[in-house]
Amino acid sequence: LVMFLIFNIDGGKLTTSRAESLPEYPTINKQGWKSHYAVKKQQNAPDDNSVIESPSATGNLEEIKKREFELSRLLEEVRREKGSVLRSKPLTIGIVGFGRFGQFIARTFQKHGRVVVTSRSDYTEIASSMGVKYVPLKNPEQFLEEDLDVIVIAVSILSFEKTIIELVPYLSKYLKERKRTSDEKTEKIRGPLFVDVLSVKEHARELMLGLLPPECDILCTHPMFGPDSGKNGWKGLNFVYEKTRIDGVVLNNSEGVIKESHKEESEVIDQNSHPFHPEDSSEESRIKAFDRVERFLSIWEEEGCRMISMGCKDHDSYTANSQFVTHLMGRILGEQGLSNTPIDTTGFQSVLQLVDVTTADSFDLFYGLYKYNQNSIHIIQRLQLAMKRVVEDLKKEEKARAFN
Fold this sequence. Notes:
By secondary structure, the protein is α/β, with parallel strands linked by helices. Helices cover about 50% and strands about 15% of the residues. The protein has helices at about 1-5, 20, 35-45, 50-55, 60-90, 100-110, 125-130, 140-145, 155-180, 200-210, 285-300, 310-335, 345-360, 365-370, 375-400, and strands spanning about 10, 15, 90-95, 115-120, 135, 150-155, 195, 220-225, 240-245, 250, 265-270, 305-310.
C-alpha cells in the first residue's frame, strides 16, 4: 500500500482517475521495470479509456437503445394482443375440492374467468366472499350443468381415484344427453378439460386415461407451490405440466425432455399407440381443443409462473429425489423430538424449520407421496444404506484411532 501511494503521488497530490491510478511504475534506471500491477493490467484487462474510444463501441449505444425501445414496444403490443384474446373468451373453470388448496387457486382463477366450486362441506359463504359460485358435491348434475370448460380435481392423492370414479357416471350421462340434443353432423361433442394438481403424476395420468370418457381432454399438472409459498403471488414459481390427451388423442410425453415453453408439441399418438394422422380429426376440432388448453395454461403464465413441460414419468423421478426425500427427512427428524436450545446454530434452526414445514402437511400427503410414486421406496432404501455406511465409517475411524 505504501509503495502504491508513493508511485501515485504527483506533485504532492494523489491521482484521481482510474486510468491514472494504475500507470506504469516510474523507471529505476535506463532499463527500468514495470510493476506487477501495471503488467497484470496490460496483459489481462483492457484500459478503461481504450474501451470508451473503441471504434466498435463509439456511437453504437444510441442505436442499441433504439432497438431496445422498439423491442419493448413490440413486446408490449404482443402482450396487449394476448390479453385481448384471453379476455375475449374467458374460461368457466370448475374446481372439485374446495379445501385450502382449492380456495388458494380459486382466488386467482376468478381474476381470469368464471369459477364454480364444489365440495362435500358447505363453503357457500367462503365462495361468495371470493366471487365464485358454490355447488354442493352431492349434486354433481348441477355442477356439470354449469357448462364448464375446465374441471380441476383439487382433492388429496388418497381421495383422487374415488373422486373420479364417483364423478364419471354423471359425466357420461351429461355427455350422452348433450349428444342427444345436438346436431352431431355440425357439432362435435366435447367434454370438459380435466386437470389434476397432484404431487404424483403417473398415478393421476393412468387413472384419468383409464376412467374419463374420450370426449374429455386431460392435462396433468403440478404447481410446485401452495398457499404458504404462493401467498405473495406466483411469480417465478414452478408449474410443471404434461399435455396428456387432446381432442381424443394421447400425446407421447415419454421422451422426458424438459421444455420451458408449452408451444412445442409432443409426438402425437392415439390411445392404442397407432400413429395419429391429421385426417383422423377435423382441423377445427383440434384447434379448439388446443386453444382451450393454452387458455388454461395462460392463467399460470400471466401470474408469472415458470412453465415447465415434462412427462409424468420424469416428474415422478425428480420429485422422489426432491419433494419426497424432503418430507422423509423432515418426518424422521421430527420423530427425534428436536426443539430449540439456548445455543442454536443457524444450521440447526434450518433443521427445525424443515421439521415444521414438513410436519405441518398432513400425513395423508406424505403417505400418498410414498404409495403412489414408485420411486419413493428406492429413496428409502438408499437412505437406509447411506445411514448404515455413515455409522460404519464412524466405527472404522473409532477403531483406527484406538490403535494410535
